[in-house]
Amino acid sequence: MSETTQTFTPLGTQAERLIELGVHEIAGLSAAEVRASVEGLGESGDGALLAVHPDRAPASALAPLLSRRGKPGFVVTDMTDVDLFAPLDGIDLPDTPLYLVGGVDRGDDMANWSPDEALPALTAASRTPLLLTEGIHWAVQHPDVLERNHCFMTIGSRLRKPKGTLDARTPALWISNGTGRDGRERREAPKVGWCWAGNRHTWLGFASGTGREGLAGRG
User: Fold this and answer.
1) Judging by DSSP bridges, how do beta strands 74-75 and 190-196 pair with one another?
2) Residue of 21, 61, 82, 68 lying closest to 190 (CA atoms)
3) Residue 50 backbone dihedrals phi, psi, to 5 degrees
4) In a 10 Å sphere around its CB, with 0-12 CB exposed, 13-18 middle and 19+ buried, how is residue 198 labelled?
5) 173 and 65 Cβ atoms separated by less than 8 Å
6) CA 68 → CA 48, 79, 104, 192, distances in Å?
7) FRET pair for 83, CA 20 to 30 Å: which of 63, 66, 169, 200?
């Protein structure tokens, strides 16, 4: 386990956080269903991230729930198609409304790698890159995971063009400087944006996990 592998709060605490923010309503679930999804798991699920399937809770609905220094999160203005970013081929999501992501790590050791370089390295290490929605869930539960000069990409989500090729953009979460179209009022706010798949950034790691587990028969 690296120094950037997250230790999550108990699943019941995470469930209450999602309920507090109204994520269950976005997902079309009752608060009782969310609580039941983790009831009785005990230590078997401790240390994992509780996530809602992106078909139920898209990135555009989750981003405003992010918060940093009293400022809500947002999606950059030139990413109006954010909800069309889908899991890469080879990433099989559990067919359940809620699921767990284990061994979540920010990937600081891969800072200054390009997404094109990072993906095969993660695969070779038997790790799976996080989806954008999973990254947002992480920052919702632990806002301090977004630090100046230490933020992360979520390259498990990519946009596929009509002919099947991948769009060159890769999504990421970081902190706005309040410049350009972000607006000065958004300085220090959590930001959902994108970077080119072939570019490197010293301040972006590559968030990944060890696997996903559906909460079968729950939620």
Assistant:
1) parallel
2) 68
3) -85, 125
4) exposed
5) no
6) 23, 21, 21, 13
7) 200
Tell me the CA distances in angstroms from 87 to 8, 148, 152, 159, 205, one per residue in order.
Answer: 23, 27, 17, 9, 19
β-partners of residue 194 are 171
d(CA 207, CA 174): 12
- What's phi and psi for 118, nearest 5 deg? -75, -40
Identity of residue 58: P
Residue type at 1 in one-letter notation: M
Count, residues in the chain: 219
- pLDDT one digit per residue (tens) for the chain, 219 residues: 455 677 899 999 999 999 999 999 999 999 999 999 999 786 656 689 999 999 999 999 999 999 999 999 999 999 999 999 999 999 999 999 999 999 999 999 999 999 999 999 999 999 999 999 999 999 999 999 999 999 999 999 999 999 889 999 999 999 999 999 999 999 999 999 999 999 999 999 999 999 999 995 444
pTM (2 d.p.): 0.94
In sequence order, the 6+-apart residues with CB closer than 8 A to the CB of 37 are: 15, 50, 97, 98, 215, 218, 219
Rounded to the nearest 10 degrees, what angle do helices 11-20 and 132-141 cross at? 100
* 3-state DSSP assignment of residue 5: strand
